[in-house]
């Protein structure tokens, strides 16, 4: 059931008008977007945690609990979790660990909004079983920024270019780009478009997204030069 992020042709659809801003004046659009980029969430994760299916809360017999318990390496931390054998990594991250920056769009390996890195390779978390990532390193959007709050260069690229509309797809695009840049740090625009073409944007904001991701690649190269 493991599904690696695929390479589908990027959509070449007309760009839409940006929606009217309705952010209160006291909160600048730039600061609002920065908050979303850092955590991938615009709302508290608590509602998601408590909305989880009863099945995910492990309302099952005590028998088998031992088999369900496992330790995951997520964002550099060892996280103990109770996961069913058929549970997907996306569900575990969101509903057990509160990492709601990993979005669920299609939940069937088509949109890329759930993209995370597993051992530095982008995967659709909705199509990876949690128990298959034992002993592997999982990185989500919450794991990109440094402890001091400074953004990853690709996240900074989004700030620099204001690259998304609703930004639901943003965590997935950022994770896909970070993963792709590990294999090709200096891509052409066309190469990067192909490299992250397994991610879709419902706002069809592809041109701006690519510009932001290219800026992120540039930021990353500069950061490595010191
Ligand atoms: S939610 Fe995983 S690919 Fe769409
Ligand atoms: S910016 Fe809205 S889904 Fe991509």
Task: Give me the secondary-structure topology.
Blueprint: H1 29-39, H2 46-51, H3 65-68, E1 69-74, E2 77-82, H4 89-96, E3 115-118, E4 121-124, E5 137-139, H5 153-161, H6 170-183, H7 189-195, H8 206-225
Parallel strand pairs: 1-5
Antiparallel strand pairs: 1-2, 3-4, 3-5
Helix pairs in contact: 5-8
The structure holds FE2/S2 (inorganic) cluster (FES) (2 copies).
Keywords:
binds FE2/S2 (inorganic) cluster; 35% helix; 5-stranded mixed beta sheet; DNA polymerase, domain 1; globular; 226 residues; 8 helices; alpha+beta
Give an account of the 3D structure.
By secondary structure, this protein is of the alpha+beta class. The protein folds into two domains: 23-67, no CATH class; 74-225, DNA polymerase, domain 1 (Orthogonal Bundle), CATH 1.10.150. 35% of the residues lie in helices and 10% in strands. Strands 2-1-5-3-4 form a five-stranded mixed β-sheet, with helices on both faces. The longest helix is centred in the last third of the chain and has 20 residues, at 206-225. Bound molecules: FE2/S2 (inorganic) cluster (2 copies). One FE2/S2 (inorganic) cluster is lined by residues 104-107, 109-114, 124, 126.
In short:
The protein is α+β, with helices and mostly antiparallel strands and 226 residues long. It contains eight helices and five strands.
**Would you report the number of β strands?**
5
CATH topology of the largest domain: DNA polymerase, domain 1
Mean pLDDT: 83
- Quote the distance from N terminus to C terminus: 41 Å
Total domain modules: 2
| Structure annotation, total helices | 8
Overall, the morphology is: globular
What is the chain-wise order of helices and strands?
HHHEEHEEEHHHH
């Amino acid at each position: 059931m493991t599904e690696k992020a695929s390479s589908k042709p990027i959509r070449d659809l007309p760009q839409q008008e940006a929606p009217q801003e309705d952010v209160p004046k006291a909160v600048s659009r730039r600061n609002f977007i920065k908050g979303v980029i850092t955590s991938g969430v615009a709302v508290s994760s608590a509602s998601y945690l408590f909305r989880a299916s009863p099945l995910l809360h492990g309302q099952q017999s005590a028998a088998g609990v031992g088999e369900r318990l496992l330790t995951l390496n997520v964002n550099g931390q060892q996280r103990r979790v109770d996961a069913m054998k058929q549970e997907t990594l996306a569900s575990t991250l969101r509903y057990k660990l509160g990492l709601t920056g990993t979005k669920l769009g299609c939940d069937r390996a088509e949109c890329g909004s759930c993209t995370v890195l597993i051992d530095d390779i982008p995967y659709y978390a909705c199509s990876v079983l949690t128990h298959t990532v034992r002993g592997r390193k999982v990185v989500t959007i919450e794991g990109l920024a440094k402890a001091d709050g400074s953004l990853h260069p690709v996240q900074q690229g989004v700030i620099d270019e204001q690259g998304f509309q609703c930004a639901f797809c943003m965590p997935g695009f950022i994770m896909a780009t970070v993963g792709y840049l590990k294999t090709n740090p200096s891509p052409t625009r066309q190469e990067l478009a192909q490299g992250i073409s397994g991610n879709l944007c419902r706002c069809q904001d592809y041109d701006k997204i690519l510009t932001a991701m290219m800026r992120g690649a540039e930021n990353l190269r500069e950061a490595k030069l010191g």
